[in-house]
Amino acid sequence: VLCDIGFIGLGVMGKNLVLNLADNGYKIAAFDLSSEKVNDVILQDQQENNSDTPRVHGCSSYTELLSQLKPPHLIVLSVPAGAPVDQVCENLIGAGIGADDIVIDTGNSLWMDTVAREKKYKNNFILFSSAVSGGEVGARFGPALMPSGSAYAWTRIKPIWEAISAKVDPETGKPLERTRPGEVVNTGDPCAAYIGPAGAGHYVKMVHNGIEYADMQIIGEAYHILRSGLGLSTDEIADIFEKWHQGPLDSYLMEITVEVLRQKSSDTGTSLVDLILDKAGQKGTGLWTAVSSLEVGCPAPTISQAVYARSISSFKDFRVQAAKQLTGPAAASFTPQEQADFIDRLHDAIYSAKICVYAQGFQLMKLAAKEHNWSLNFASIAKIWRAGCIIRAVFLQPITEAFQRNEDLENLLLDDFFAGQLNAHQGNWRKAVAEATLLGIPVGALSSALSYYDSMRAEVLPANLLQGQRDFFGAHTFERVDKPAGKKYHVQWSSPERQTVEIPPVQ
Ligand code: 6PG
């Protein structure tokens, strides 16, 4: 019997996606350069599958993989972003892949690479992309999927993607959990919706990751304040986060943070997080989001700050040295009441900063979509992020509703619900940032979000002075608030009269 889907790349994500596809009734031909990984997935399938018919057929070459598939072939790639994707594509061409065949790249590819690949391979096969979010558990039991590319290819992929994706209860907006091998969830809203043409899906996944970086950094800053500023134990902090997780901060990242904080080292028996080296890794998607925000000209300072925070963390030796030379404020002490109030304010600070992070991410997608002629549906994007992915959170439900109320919403800050939340919490947010700063605890994400909020709501910014400076040293001209828009002026700075003259428009 021929297989429904070919699968290349059986790392952690690949293996789990294969088993997820198999649970949903698809027969898979699986290939990896490592025959050990091929054997591993076959073995796991045998252990989990109660029937005598194997659901996964192991292949030892690209040619064998193609020969095992129903035509036109549907092949899913789960290989590292970058050169490996092209290597696999070239190997598939060498093995005789056809122009009607579809290859789905599920990695975190750079969106521009995806656009280029779709063109490059268009005479050989249809390159489709679908970023996957949710880590290994998501891949196994229901990820969020961000498919994009040929609309024809999507018609073939849609039923499969909707079957394997995470599902959300349409009434509550909460995930419908699936936790056991063999289990499938056929009801609920699938976290898989067509995003747009080639590149759009990877762009949206890139922004998801940028938001993920900022969400993690904000939680990290709260932990830092509670641990170093208030001197709480990791278990006490876990208790606070657990309580916060009951309210609007209910999210997967908050939930796993509690688990990480509670974890004891199996050898020392002490808090594991205290033993983990404070140098953060990164694979690039947060950086790409920050770079794109600069290129598009859409402010995303909290996402960029989260990338900087990871870079700063990597300067460990420098920091150890500088800690001996540079002083901060003296340690402060708090009464139990002061401490409790501070913790409440911190909650509001995190919530408000989180709203700004999503405002930045969604506006970035909106402006990028305009630039690249993608028609993105933001309610649908917020909807597919409600379950399966790393940034899943109850918070995505009001975002979904905000874009359902107004599909042209320019920025979440202007949505009545979120504006109301920010208005209610901004006072506590300011105090928390100020208090952390007085304690000498770096809060780059919390404070950059606050500056973003204050800048975006400011009718007047000091860019008038800046324009004056630019005109002084470079005759860059400026517009005036008391004259019609678009008219340009320049001061003859070097003449004794320093006359302001109108500059005629360039023909
Ligand atoms: C996801 C994650 C996943 C991964 C990233 C981030 O959505 O499932 O975003 O794609 O964790 O690669 O990794 P770094 O923190 O290493 O950049």
Mean pLDDT: 97
Shape: globular
Order of helices and strands: EHEHEHEHEHEHEHEEHHHHHHHHHHHHEE
| Beta-strand percent range | 5-15%
The CATH C-level class name of the largest domain: Mainly Alpha
Oligomer: single chain
Q: Please state how the strands of the largest beta sheet are arranged side by side.
A: 3-2-1-4-5-6-7
CATH architecture of the largest domain: Orthogonal Bundle
Number of strands: 11
Q: CATH superfamily membership of the largest domain, which one?
A: N-(1-d-carboxylethyl)-l-norvaline Dehydrogenase, domain 2
Structural class: alpha/beta
Helix content: 40-55%
Low-confidence runs of at least 5 consecutive residues: none
* Helical segment count: 19
Description:
- The chain is built from 19 helices and eleven strands.
- The protein is an alpha/beta fold.
- The protein has three domains: 5-198, Rossmann fold (3-Layer(aba) Sandwich), CATH 3.40.50; 202-453, N-(1-d-carboxylethyl)-l-norvaline Dehydrogenase, domain 2; 463-503, Single alpha-helices involved in coiled-coils or other helix-helix interfaces (Up-down Bundle), CATH 1.20.5.
- The strands form three sheets. The chain has a seven-stranded mixed sheet with strand order 3-2-1-4-5-6-7, sandwiched between helices. The protein has a two-stranded antiparallel ribbon with strand order 8-9. Strands 10-11 form a two-stranded antiparallel sheet.
- Helix 8 packs antiparallel against helix 14.
- The longest helix is centred in the C-terminal third of the chain and has 37 residues, at 336-372.
- Bound molecules: 6-phosphogluconic acid (6PG).
